[in-house]
Design brief:
With 323 residues, this protein is mainly α. Helices cover 72% and strands 1% of the residues. The protein has 15 helices and 2 strands. A two-stranded antiparallel ribbon has the order 1-2. A hairpin with an 8-residue loop joins strand 1 and strand 2.
Length: 323
């Protein structure tokens, strides 16, 4: 055939390559990498805009205001450099508020973590109606905090509160004792004990961690003759250390930002017994219109929380065990 037509027949491999090439030319080509990246940025643009406007922007503005004197009534802040930071370390209320906050953190965090773990272990059982009890314990964590604190202020009233009424009936304590929110000795313990009402938030995290522990570890411990306490110390706690670490970090951060209960129930009193750091910051900003001074307090709080968080992460490898 090739000799009759005068033109050689192309090899089959050449025909296959030509067909394949034409098919590839019609196939959709991959989009440029740059276009895909811009589409990704477009999808996250709402979050980025919100972060810049409502988080990063206020952070940078507060850093600038911390070096100014501004009462919100002047058209422009007055630059004072580091004077606000120097004034803080000569303010007795600054050290009082820091001391109150550290005391609250040192007592409420271990107490709250132990209580949350205890409740989680009680609720980590297969029993009829257990989901109802889990819901009941978690409800305070999603209830309006202001409403709950107003309720607790009534419960802790020394004259007609139900807490003192129960103490008088059960233990025959003197009428009107203890003074709770009106007594400088009892005001801080009252807020710490009241914080146990909110065990549900930590409890639900511990419960998730407990349900993630493999059951065969407990079975192996039982075969070795381990009792309930031994299984708790040798299996539950080591396997739960990542959850404990998470709750520890979040509890420390939250305890340094305690504000609402003191603002609603005591206003920092009596005799500054509950003058927490963030409450003093709020008073400086919105009661005395010292926004530069309050911004300096906010940045010191940021440094303290960041330092404590860094210490927790530094010590974590010594006691946190991951699978």
């Amino acid at each position: 055939m090739a000799s009759m037509t005068g033109s050689p027949t192309p090899p089959r491999s050449v025909e296959t390559a030509a067909v394949t090439g034409s098919a590839l030319s019609r196939a959709p080509q991959p989009r440029p990498r740059e276009r895909v990246q811009w589409e990704g940025y477009l999808f996250i643009a709402p979050w980025l805009i919100g972060f810049v406007l409502f988080t990063l922007g206020p952070i940078l503005i507060s850093l600038y205001l911390s070096m100014t004197k501004w009462d919100l009534l002047r058209p422009q802040p007055q630059w004072v450099g580091l004077n606000n930071y120097r004034d803080l370390f000569h303010d007795p209320d600054f050290f009082i508020s820091l001391q109150r906050t550290l005391y609250y953190t040192g007592v409420s965090v271990p107490l709250g973590m132990a209580g949350s773990l205890g409740v989680a272990m009680l609720l980590n059982r297969k029993a009829p109606g257990i989901s109802i009890f889990r819901t009941i314990y978690y409800l305070p964590a999603v209830t309006s905090s202001v409403a709950m604190f107003l309720l607790w202020r009534w419960l802790l009233n020394p004259e007609f509160g139900l807490v003192n009424y129960a103490l008088h009936g059960l233990l025959r304590t003197p009428q009107g004792w203890p003074g709770w929110l009106s007594d400088p000795t009892w005001a801080m313990p009252a807020l710490i004990l009241m914080n146990l009402w909110y065990l549900g938030g930590g409890m639900i995290i511990y419960l998730a961690g407990l349900q993630g522990i493999p059951e065969h570890l407990y079975e192996a411990a039982e075969l070795d003759g381990a009792g309930a306490w031994r299984k708790f110390t040798a299996v539950t706690v080591p396997m739960l250390t990542p959850t404990i670490f998470f709750n520890l970090v979040m509890s420390v951060i939250g305890s340094f930002q305690v504000f609402t209960q003191a603002y609603v129930m005591t206003q920092g009193g009596p005799a500054k017994a509950t003058l927490f750091y963030v409450l003093l910051l709020y008073q400086q900003a919105f009661d005395f219109l010292r926004f530069g001074y309050a911004s300096a307090m906010a940045w010191i709080l940021f440094v303290v929380i960041a330092a404590l968080t860094a210490v927790n992460f530094k010590l974590a490898p010594k006691w946190v065990h991951y699978e």
